[in-house]
Design goal:
- The protein has 463 residues and is of the alpha+beta class.
- It folds into 4 domains: 12-53, no CATH class; 68-203, no CATH class; 220-322 and 330-347, 2-Layer Sandwich (Dna Ligase, domain 1), CATH 3.30.1490; 374-461, no CATH class.
- It is 31% helix and 28% strand.
- The protein has helices spanning 25-29, 38-44, 55-69, 98-112, 127-135, 147-151, 163-171, 177-182, 185-192, 194-203, 233-254, 286-298, 331-348, and strands at 12-16, 19-23, 49-52, 76-79, 83-86, 119-122, 140-143, 220-230, 256-267, 273-283, 306-313, 317-318, 355-358, 368-371, 389-397, 399-400, 403-404, 411-421, 429-437, 443-449, 456-461.
- Strands 8, 9, 10, 11 and 12 form a 5-stranded antiparallel sheet that branches.
- Helix 12 runs parallel beside helix 13.
- The chain starts with 11 loop residues before the first strand and ends with a strand.
């Protein structure tokens, strides 16, 4: 959890009080093991990074993982402080079998920045057994008939035992679950109470183990702290990739999409910087999110070093999945246009990328205006004998014997179309427009000025 903001493995340990609770692989290699005193751990590994345990952060991490895992099954429950339980029997066929599903879970959790131990119980309703095996570091699949043998070597301390029961078991020499299994049930119940027997039966799948289902939140929010303040945007993109992977999984679980999300850059001594990322259309593709965010971060000048990164998406809308069609319905081309638009806006800025809408005006230079890209409109005003490509300002053309020339003689094909308008705003015009053909068969839109100055002008080109 604390290493999600680092691209390289570090020697890190989590302390609870004066003892080490957990250690990273790099710390374990240096001799820092759970249960070691904090002072001893610092003496063994002088460069060890120590973090205090945060139950709030643990709950947030569990909820983030559970919300992401909803794309594989809706039957999820939390087993605090460190386990998420999934019922995946009904999902195996959809994801290509157990091996393929486990591969997706493992690789997906790695993209989120978590290292997980995945234990599977097949053929028995024993979620407690899966949690015990995972906490003991025993990954893999265990069948119903192998449960007792698989659980026997595990420490009895993995069970939820109160202080008196733990002391009683230690006093009679019980160290493992196998020791508990071998003791007479009646005598074990007299010494330790019925609660221990209930836990053993639940672990073996002999007693029901009902658990409340996890309810995903209505909106997405996640946060990752950096080990060291980030002074450039490159580390931001690495951490943002983990947050976007969580967002994509959350949206897949809800069959939804977003049109915008907010990236919050937290600083030490000043207010946070909020970066709003807007999409051209609703989506939930992680790669698409990352491409747009990369362009936005490339243009961002950090106001101060960043100590934490947060991601939030509030307006979740329904978004159906993509199915294969025999005939192209144009959806892919529309999505490609939308992605091109949002990438251009991310790179150039929203103000420099816009669409065009028709305006009912006779003067060509006033017959259009900027508009939001993708705006639906009637195109009658843009069709006919007027081109979409206008020159601003119109280009003066030389003439010979009263005829216009443009790299050679111009043949007039249609016209004139007389336009006299604008006397009320001081920008009046008095022109005769023609459609002409240039030396290379180009279609030109040109006019002859009818006022005193006269002359031919090229105003547009037909595509």
């Amino acid at each position: 959890m604390f290493l999600r903001g680092s691209a390289s493995p570090e020697a890190l340990a989590v302390a609870a009080g004066r003892h080490v609770l957990a250690a990273s692989e790099a710390a374990l290699a240096l001799g820092v093991v759970p249960g070691l005193g904090v002072a001893t751990a610092q003496a063994v590994a002088p460069r060890l990074v120590l973090k205090a345990r945060s139950e709030t952060a643990e709950r947030a991490a569990l909820q983030e993982i559970a919300a992401w895992a909803g794309q594989f099954t809706p039957q999820i429950s939390l087993d605090a402080p460190d386990a998420v339980l999934l019922e995946v029997a009904a999902s195996l066929r959809l994801f290509g079998g157990l091996a393929a599903l486990l591969q997706r879970l493992e690789s997906g959790l790695a993209e989120l920045g978590f290292r997980a131990v995945i234990a599977v119980i097949a053929g028995a309703p024993a979620p407690l057994a899966a949690a015990l095996l995972a906490r003991a570091g025993r990954s893999g699949c265990v069948g119903a008939g192998e449960l007792a043998a698989a659980l026997a070597p595990l420490p009895a301390a993995l069970l939820e035992l109160d202080g008196d029961v733990a002391e009683t078991l230690a006093a009679i020499g019980v160290a493992t679950l196998g020791d508990c299994f071998r003791l007479p049930r009646a005598g074990l119940a007299r010494r330790c109470g019925p609660g221990l027997l209930r836990q053993l039966d639940r672990a073996l799948g002999r007693a029901p183990d009902p658990r409340p289902w996890f309810a995903a939140p209505a909106s997405f929010a996640a946060r990752i702290e950096f080990d060291w303040p980030a002074e450039s945007t490159e580390p931001l993109l690495f951490v943002a990739r983990r947050l976007l992977a969580g967002l994509a999984g959350f949206l897949a679980a809800r069959h939804g999409g977003v049109e915008r999300f907010d990236l919050v850059l937290e600083h030490e001594a000043r207010a946070a910087t909020q970066l709003v990322v807007e999409l051209a259309s609703r989506g939930r593709d992680e790669r698409r999110f990352l491409d747009v965010l990369r362009e936005r971060l490339a243009r961002l000048a950090l106001a101060a070093p960043v100590v934490a990164l947060g991601l939030a998406a509030g307006e979740i809308r329904d978004l159906a999945g993509v199915s294969r069609d025999l005939f192209d319905d144009g959806r892919r081309s529309r999505e490609a246009c939308a992605r091109l638009l949002e990438n251009l806006r991310a790179r150039l800025g929203d103000d420099l990328v816009s669409g065009v809408r028709a305006v009912p005006a006779h003067r060509p230079e006033f017959a259009w205006a900027n508009a939001e890209p993708g705006l639906k409109q009637k195109l009658e005003g843009l069709c006919g004998s007027r081109p979409l490509w206008l020159l601003e300002p119109p280009q003066a053309l030389p003439e010979r014997d009263g005829e216009p020339r443009w790299d050679g003689p111009v043949a007039l094909l249609a016209g004139p179309e007389r336009i006299e308008s604008g006397w009320w705003d001081g920008k009046d015009c008095c022109r005769d427009y023609y459609v002409g053909s240039g030396p290379q068969r180009e279609l030109l839109w040109l006019f002859r000025e009818r006022r005193a100055a006269g002359g031919w002008f090229l105003h547009g080109l037909f595509a």
